[in-house]
Amino acid sequence: MSEKIIETGTLSRKDFKLDTPVKWCAGCGAHAVLASIQGTIPETGVRKEDVVFVSGIGCSSRFPYYIDTYGFHSLHGRATAIASGIKTANPNLSVWVITGDGDSMAIGGNHFIHIIRRNINVNIILFNNKIYGLTKGQYSPTTPKGSITKTSPEGTIENSFQPGELAMGAQGTFFARVVDTDPKMMKDVLLKAAQHKGTSVVEVLLNCVIFANEVHKEITGKEVRDDHQVYLKHGEPMIFGKNRDKGIRYNCNKMEVVTIGEDGITEDDILVHDATNPDDSTHYNLVRMGLPEFPVAMGVVRAAESTVFESLMHDQVTNAQKHSKIKTVNDLINSGNVFRIDQKS
After folding, report:
1. What is the DSSP letter of 4?
2. All CATH 3.40.50.970 domain ranges in the chain, comma separated
């Protein structure tokens, strides 16, 4: 990356583009994510030299090679651990983790839940194509039960992870979901993730044209997307449908889909989305919603305030340095129960 310092506010997408070829398959949804992030970073107000992308292993994890920032292509499943160290060492950096459903949910699962639990101020972009693409089509932790893959020729027999459910269980403060076919939604959500103080997780429902082509077609298809997605916006009712006449409400403490205008249902009966309440059980219900009974929740499901790990850690270090009698290594060596041996001449 160029050593030239570019003042905040003067950056554009071209400042983050490289001339080198992008080696993802034609039709891969990752291209859309790359373009959206390149368009989002300039709007965050962060200096170019303060942006770092960290990835693990997998198709998604080639991302640092395709964006003109500092980057770290790390080990399988360890991107969140390395990003934790980078952010803790230098809280002024804007740190982004690029990972996949296999990289983060399988070998990296432990690191994934603990960075969320600690609430370190990084942004995790999770490419979910529900398959292992780089290793040629094995089923992943998010592959739907019963799917035929190269490692499950008779159908998977494992229950699949819901990334949003896992994030909620780890006390996550920010979770959002987008699709690779809606760049406007993606950019809007990515900007909100970047502005969030704490760990933000954005799940991207992404197409793998080779090994899981059209895996999200029941959600992203032009003929069905309006009826099969509800785009959540804080403070607005959960309304969806081609005619904007469907909504979600609670009935006897259970969520249900209703049609506005039928059975006396009005817009006032529809749930209003509150993304900011960390104790709202509705968030958990929203990330679990799915076809055929419910639309899939898109947008920012949760964006709650909480303490941020690296801020508290640096406060502790500063306080300890201020009040401790031990200021140097020599102080440490000569502290406590020590004795001295004098040499005889």
Report:
1. -
2. 13-236+273-310
Phi and psi angles of residue 51, each rounded to the nearest 5 degrees, phi first: -100, 130
For residues 67 and 18, is the Cβ–Cβ distance under 8 A? Answer: yes
Query: In this structure, what token pair is assigned to residue 306?
Result: 């909480």
Beta bridge partners of 138: 132
Confidence of residue 9 (pLDDT cuts 50, 70, 90): low
What's the fold here for domain 13-236+273-310?
Rossmann fold (3.40.50)
Helical spans, DSSP H, in the chain = 30-40, 79-89, 101-102, 109-118, 163-169, 183-195, 217-220, 225-228, 281-288, 309-323, 329-333
Whether the model pTM is above 0.90: yes
pLDDT of residue 340: 74
| Among the listed residues 116, 100, 282, 124, the one whose alpha carbon sits nearest the alpha carbon of residue 193 | 124
* CA nearest to 271, candidates 293, 239, 230, 304: 239
**What is the average per-residue pLDDT within 310-317?**
94
Burial 161-183 (b: 16+ CB within 10 A, else e): bbbbebbbebebbbbbbbbbbbe
Q: How far apart are CA 290 and CA 134, in angstroms?
A: 27
Structure tokens, 221: 């298809």
**Residue 95 pairs with which residues in a beta bridge?**
52
pLDDT in tens, 36-88: 999 999 999 999 999 999 999 999 999 999 999 999 999 999 999 999 999 99
- Is 203 within 8 Å of 141 (Cβ atoms)? no
- Write the single-letter amino acid at 154: E
Return the closest-CA partner of residue 76 out of 61, 95, 94.
61
CA angle 235, 40, 93 (to 5 degrees): 100
- Sheet containing 246-251, strands listed edge to edge, beginning at the edge strand earlier in sequence: 239-240, 246-251, 254-259
pLDDT tens per residue across span 89-115: 999 999 999 999 999 999 999 999 999
Return the closest-CA partner of residue 86 out of 99, 71, 76.
71
| CA angle, 2 then 188 then 286, to 5° | 130
Q: Going by DSSP bridges, is the β-strand pair 229-232/239-240 parallel, antiparallel, or unpaired?
A: unpaired
